């Protein structure tokens, strides 16, 4: 009987954990922020490489 009561308590805790979605929103926001950061890094790198070419051509013209 004691084992059955503990098993019911464990089962209830597992079910409550499975239904709990409080951390899901924070994880989703974290993933979105990471994706935005990756896009910014790629964009800045691409623009930076093009600026190097422009400044090198200006320096060569001087």
From TrEMBL:
Keywords for the protein's UniProt record, in alphabetical order: Membrane, Transmembrane, Transmembrane helix
**One Pfam family of this chain:** Flp_Fap
Q: Where are the transmembrane segments?
A: 29-48
Organism's domain of life? Bacteria
Protein name as it appears in the record: Flp family type IVb pilin
């Amino acid at each position: 009987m004691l084992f059955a009561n503990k098993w019911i308590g464990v089962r209830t805790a597992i079910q409550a954990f499975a239904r709990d979605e409080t951390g899901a929103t924070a994880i989703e926001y974290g993933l979105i922020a990471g994706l935005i950061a990756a896009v910014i890094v790629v964009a800045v790198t691409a623009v930076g490489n093009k600026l190097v070419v422009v400044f090198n051509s200006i320096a060569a013209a001087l």
